[in-house]
Amino acid sequence: MPGVGPPEMKQLRNNVIRAGLGALYFSGAHHLLRPLLSGVGAIFMLHHVRPAREAAFQPNRHLEVTPDFLRATLCHLRSRDIDIVSMDELQERLAQGRFARRFAAFTLDDGYRDNLEFALPVLREFDAPLTVYIASDFAEGTGRLWWTALEAAIAKTEQIDVQIGNAALRLDATTPAAKQAAFDRLHDWLRALPGEHDLEREIEALCARHDVDMAALCRSLCLSWDEVERLAADPLVTIGAHSISHCNLAKQSGEIAAQEMTLSRARIEHALGRTVQHFAYPYGDRQAAGEREFALAASAGFKTAVTTRPGMLFAENAGQLTALPRVSLNGNYQDARILPVLTSGAATAMWNGFRRIAAA
After folding, report:
1. Residue 45 sits in which domain range?
2. Most CB within 10 Å of its CB: which of 78, 160, 210, 310?
3. Cβ contact 45:306 at 8 Å
4. DSSP 197-233
């Protein structure tokens, strides 16, 4: 598409997704497609659950939903007689082929404090289990939430100076739209850097230039070990692992990727005094988790491991328990009307070209 850069493409994609969800809803097509595409269940993916923020510049908005939207989702599932289960129960139903009733699991990535403050009370209302995947550096208060740090740096300035390769760039950040364009450009650049040390170097330089304390951000947003322990004490809660540093595992050597899985689990088990049997791949898309990572998670002994690849669960997923797809509850699409579309499987099927399993 000539003349359309990455930020415009991202906005176009969001508009296309929103239009597609609306078309499926208003046409009623999701009703017809449900028997074919809804599968046996779904794993819902969330990050933050907290009240809506007012700021015009919120580039990470997709990572947060309000307690009311979570409540609406739970109401919808209950109205359709879908069982809400733990990841242990989900794994057993898949492995044993117990599909008499459809089921759903709720998973929350990273380990944010709002999971305890806002998500858990809503899930308690419905006696609904949840799994929270903890990145152990985040619980230590030393993690790099670089996407949040990038937002904080751009929010407080009117221009961003950055060296990308041999080019010195000066990005406008005077308006919310300009800030969003700058964020998209820098986010994509940082994600594409060859190694974790490259990302660390660049984001730390940006934070230093714009007076952003990344460790303080981590401590303000993430559960401490004491709070993880409080969360884990609730019988509805399962704690899973999400690596040590939230790095892109596919960019690591096999040895380092395996350590990120097993040492993060060991840290959590030491803190909580209980076994950890479920894993979530950081980022979890095709650039961050593939066949090697799926095999590493299986070798490490995890019962399940979840990706961020969109998809419903089908009987065939029993053979790929460390490559499970999820359905994102995305902060950009918090409209209760889309919930029947999401649970019909029509939206994820369209995304996957109508392949039932799109793990590899």
Report:
1. 6-143+222-351
2. 160
3. yes
4. HHHHHHHHHHHHHTT--HHHHHHHHBPPHHHHHHHHT
Beta bridge partners of 172: 159
- Asked whether residue 108 falls in the same domain as residue 36, the answer is yes
Q: Which of 121-125, 207-211, 336-340 has the lowest mean pLDDT?
A: 336-340
**What is the rounded CA–CA span in Å between residue 107 and residue 360?**
22
| Residue closest to 35 by CA, chosen among 344, 343, 318 | 344
Same-domain check for residues 19 and 115: yes
Residues 280-309 pLDDT 10s? 999 999 999 999 999 999 999 999 999 999
The answer to the question of residue 56 being in a domain is: yes
Flag whether pLDDT at 5 surpasses 60: no
- Model pTM above 0.85: yes
Helix (H) or strand (E) holding 147: helix 146-155
For residue 84, what are the β-bridge partners?
A: 104
Strands (E), 76-116: 83-84, 103-110
Note whether residue 359 is domain-resident. Answer: no
Torsional sign, CA 133, 136, 192, 169? positive
Distance of CA 317 to the CA centre of its chain: 20
Residue 306 amino acid letter:
V
- Examine the domain organization and report whether 139 and 232 are in the same domain: yes
DSSP code for 302: -
Q: Alpha carbon of 177 to those of 5, 136, 183, 330: distances in Å?
A: 14, 34, 10, 20
Going along the chain, which residue ranges are E strands?
Answer: 41-46, 48-49, 64-65, 83-84, 103-110, 130-134, 159-164, 167-172, 237-241, 278-280, 304-310, 324-328
Residue 159 neighbours by CB under 8 Å, 6+ apart: 170, 171, 172, 173, 174
